[in-house]
Amino acid sequence: MELQANAQTFWENQWMKTIERSKAEQPARSEARGPCDINRWDNMAKDFAQRTSGEKASVKRDATLKQLVDKGILTPKTRVLDVGAGPGSWALPMAKLCAHVTALEPSGGMIDIMSKRIEQEKVDNISIVQKTWQETDLAEQGWEKAFDLVFASMTPGIDGPDAVMKLMAASTYYCYMSAFSGPGMNQQFAPLWEKFFDRPMPQKHTDIIYPFNLVYAMGYRPDITFSWWNKEIDWDRDHTIRHITRFFQSHMEITREAEQIIADYVETRCVDGEYVPAAPVCRGTMTWSVHEDRKTRSGGSDGI
């Protein structure tokens, strides 16, 4: 029997098919990327922390936190789990608004930066746990339904249906998740990908369409919003070259010729030394309640 598009199993299958297709289309040399590619995140920690602490990023982050406060999702009593906490870009400001933040982050490089920031800002209600989301056992950690808000912002740890289910299993009430909508940052690499591998880039399997429709099909009604980053990517020439090079290091050997091709491409996208994105980048953000009294089988929004 053909599965209905509003069935949970349908969206689990659609997401897994996209994941498998994406893996099959990767170059032979491609390393396992995402939550297990810790070295890559260690190497980019400094640049990533700088990129996510800029003025534009801070303004958008403050606006998001204000919305969570205004909706009663983030309160002085809230216990938060921040999945893929990175350098603490969200954990630190959230800690000033809630009871406690558990920051889950696998990268030692990211944790070093976050620890220094915690010390500098004299924050005493953040606990750091160094693990990937995939290797985290909720029962072993005592995290089953242990948090009021489970928060996952743009993290590669949310890489399939099981990862979303685990978010919900750790939450007593609310979940927050953001991810790219459409090709995301990958479209910045697409012209070079086609040049290096002579074929289009594989479809991105972390598009927010999959978790949104999965959660919806489970009977929950997430609020979802979209924002564009076309004017918020403040990268200079050297930062952009490092970022693109690190991406391709997971897929190919970076020869001198490849370095020159990347540098030449970046030059064509720079104006006055600043990178101009090849296309606007869209991000989707969704919040939802996992409480049973907010579950429905009919239309309508959670209203959170």
Q: How does this model look, in words?
A:
Helix 2 packs antiparallel against helix 10 and helix 10 crosses helix 11. The protein is 41% helix and 16% strand. Helix 7 links the parallel strand 4 and strand 5. It has a 7-stranded mixed sheet with strand order 3-2-1-4-5-9-6. Strands 7-8 form a two-stranded antiparallel sheet. The radius of gyration is 20 Å and the shape is globular. It is an alpha/beta fold and 304 residues long. The C terminus is likely disordered. It has 11 helices and 9 strands. It starts with 7 loop residues before the first helix and ends in a 15-residue tail after the last strand.
Q: What count of helical segments does DSSP give?
A: 11
How many angstroms does the end-to-end distance come to?
36 Å
Average residue-wise pLDDT: 88
Main sheet overview:
7 strands, mixed
Question: Which architecture name does CATH use?
Answer: 3-Layer(aba) Sandwich
Summarize the structure.
The protein has 304 residues and is of the alpha/beta class.
